[in-house]
Amino acid sequence: MKKRIAVLPGDGIGKEVTKGAIEVLQAVGERFGHQFYFQYGLIGGEAIDAVGSPLPNETIELCKQSDAILLGAVGGPKWESQPTHLRPERGLLKIRKELSLYANLRPTSYYASLAESSPLRKEVIEGVDMVMVRELTGGLYFGKPSERTRKNGEDEVVDTLYYKRAEMERVIKLAFQLAKERKGKVTSVDKANVLESSRMWREVAESVAKEYPAVELEHMLVDNAAMQMIKKPKRFDVVVTENMFGDILSDEASVLTGSLGMLPSASLSEDGPYLYEPIHGSAPDIEGENTANPLAMILSAAMMLRLSFSMHEEAEAVEQAVNQVLEAGYRTKDIMTFGKKPVTTKEMVEEVKATLMDNEAIM
Ligand code: NAD
Ligand code: IPM
Ligand code: MN
């Protein structure tokens, strides 16, 4: 198969892990006889420096003409004092909105080989298998009025949490659809004891649930969910929630796997193209060290193979290679247990590629 992939490496370790994922995709192409065409676009701080905008129109066009998009991460201290509309993060929000990527899937699963890397006890995390479905194009991130109310430095500010019923409905439906194919349970997370928007969210969840009698629906307040997620994570199957709650809870969920550097994501729209990115950021604290964990990005590429290209065998081959490399004891610094020597980003990528190419069992 021939596929066009838009590649937006972005800033900081985004660049480092994207390079790794591309190499793994090239290995997949070689191994399975596919042609992947990679076309690079600017986003984030790099785009601000080059052309004065965090998301140039050329990048939007490139994405729209591609079969799928792979994005590293954006942001960094260099651009922190920029006005909000000229921050790298704006580029990320804009591409999500431009492509109507309303549902962000963030799976968290247990890796037996990483049990020691999590600060949580093995009994707590063993067997965890959940997917966070985060609403991605609404809520506080996109409400108006917003920061512009402070353009003259006033001592008042407003951010608006705005949703239309249809926006809630489509993402909640997707969560039920997913649960139907998984363990049959949806946990809808909100703050209905305080927020009007959450009360509507609950109402919508109840009405969608009627269309899925085989799926169990539970409601949970977000503060309790944050606690349950580390106390009893195995109780969750599909978690669906609004934009900001999902952002916060998914970083927390990554601790169940062992590291933020392990969690991939897929952002879906009605008609595509879909976008794939790790959930972590540009990690300025380790930028340029060659120590970043590339697996979240590599696993995002595997999600792309499965969800955008229906290359199921290929996706499994990548996931299996990652598993084998971890089982063989290779660890970047973030998942390293005490007293052992970590591998670099590049070495980890090499191991995944070598395993993928050598693995007879995969074919
Ligand atoms: P971060 O996710 O970049 O880093 C948080 C911590 O996790 C850091 O200690 C970092 O070193 C570590 N970490 C993250 N990814 C890792 C990996 N692959 N391997 C090893 N360690 C890893 O979050 P932050 O520090 O709060 O934000 C830094 C910048 O990134 C900010 O500008 C923020 O806006 C941006 N950001 C971007 C995205 C994105 O592009 N999707 C996501 C989150 C944060
Ligand atoms: C993420 C990030 C982004 C978000 C930021 C960088 C805008 O934290 O993708 O999780 O909050 O959505
Ligand atoms: Mn985040």
TrEMBL record:
Start and end residues of each Isopropylmalate dehydrogenase-like domain: 4-352
Reactions it catalyzes: (2R,3S)-3-isopropylmalate + NAD(+) = 4-methyl-2-oxopentanoate + CO2 + NADH
Binding site for substrate: 96, 106, 134, 223
Biological or metabolic pathway of the protein: Amino-acid biosynthesis; L-leucine biosynthesis; L-leucine from 3-methyl-2-oxobutanoate: step 3/4
Keyword list, A-Z: Amino-acid biosynthesis, Branched-chain amino acid biosynthesis, Cytoplasm, Leucine biosynthesis, Magnesium, Manganese, Metal-binding, NAD, Oxidoreductase
Entry keyword annotation includes Transferase: no
Cofactor: Mg(2+); Mn(2+)
GO molecular function: 3-isopropylmalate dehydrogenase activity; magnesium ion binding; NAD binding
Pfam families: Iso_dh (PF00180)
Subcellular location field: Cytoplasm
Textual note on the cofactor: Binds 1 Mg(2+) or Mn(2+) ion per subunit.
Residues reported in the UniProt entry to bind NAD(+): 76-89, 281-293
EC number(s) per entry: 1.1.1.85
PANTHER family xref list: 3-ISOPROPYLMALATE DEHYDROGENASE
Task performed by this protein: Catalyzes the oxidation of 3-carboxy-2-hydroxy-4-methylpentanoate (3-isopropylmalate) to 3-carboxy-4-methyl-2-oxopentanoate. The product decarboxylates to 4-methyl-2 oxopentanoate.
Family classification: Belongs to the isocitrate and isopropylmalate dehydrogenases family. LeuB type 1 subfamily.
Subunit text: Homodimer.
Protein name stated in the entry: 3-isopropylmalate dehydrogenase
